Amino acid sequence: MTRPIEETMDLARRAVTHYVNRTTDQAPDTYALDVSAYTDPDRYRHEVERVFREQPLALVLSIEIATPNSYRATEVCGTPVIVTRDGEGKAHAFLNACRHRGAPVCADGRGEARQFSCPYHAWVYDTKGALVSMYGGKTFGDVDIEKMGLRELPCVEKAGLVWVCLTPGKSFDIDEWLGDFAAELETLDLGNWYLYDQRDLPGPGWKVAWDGYLEAYHHNTLHAETVGKYTVGNLMLHDTYGPHQRIVFGRKSLKEIARKPETAWADPSEHIRLIHSVFPNTSISGVVGDHALVSQVFPGPNPDSTLTRQSILCAKKPETDAEKAATEGFSQMTLRAVRDEDYNMGFQIQKTLSSKANEAFVFGRNEPALQHYHDWVARLSG
């Protein structure tokens, strides 16, 4: 599924209008959020439980487990998870804990395996989670094998992502969760990209880190030497789909097409950059020269830490020296922009939170995506 050219033209038209008028999409009013939303440990635990453990998460890219009998093992909000693709090609998710004495049956990472053997007592499970053998089974005693498979988590594959709920037994309807946003994600064709690299970055607290993904207000200042070279600061289009959001940044090439009739806009997609913000923690950052960045921000054990998994995608595997250089250049630019700029600033903000300098943070009308996000956190956490 590809985005209709008429829709892309409309987005470029909206961006050009803002560029000419020096405006941006806006919320109806400013918005104040008490700083305790960033610091209170009880509130943090409650929100992580309700938002991250009870709602569907876009946990793994389909291309991370592209082949039958492949897997990704990871820890999410303190929960060890294995996502597998079985021999028939279906995705599953399980708690990464042997049903005998709880040892992880697989080390964190990606790979291929038809079976997982517990390193403690050699109980063996297949990619469907079934217990298939027990070392010394004849001497162990009676066990209902059917009930001793890995504890399964609700799991659905859609739009190039594997969606998982971290609470066993809690079902979800992915079509209801995504609504019209599903069609937006389908236009990205995520299942057919090449996964060039992945890395995990330590970051500041969940909300401090995530706030930076939701606005262009800081691009001219903080990102002057990276993404700010290409995007127009404080210009953003904002569209919502339930808790999810589509953000569009204007590229500086808007200046060129603003002077031309629309009939002369050869490819309007070259002048805008789309960000698909999947609630609550996944950002799929626009296609730039056949490259994209997927960022997944996972809350840490306390309010002031996160882990971010960056996935660098390209339209096809780079083969030539020029292609390899372009892909590595994109990878290094995104690393610098997030680790050295956004998160470096975020760590500094984290230090001031307990200083009482601010009782509340004020989000401007020009930061509608921030307002929308924090509204939905409040709504889903009660």
TrEMBL record:
GO terms for MF: 2 iron, 2 sulfur cluster binding; iron ion binding; oxidoreductase activity
Domain of life: Bacteria
Keyword terms of this UniProt record: 2Fe-2S, Iron, Iron-sulfur, Metal-binding, NAD, Oxidoreductase
Keyword NAD: yes
Cofactors named for this entry: Fe cation
PANTHER family (alphabetical): CHOLINE MONOOXYGENASE, CHLOROPLASTIC (PTHR43756)
Name this polypeptide is given: Rieske (2Fe-2S) protein
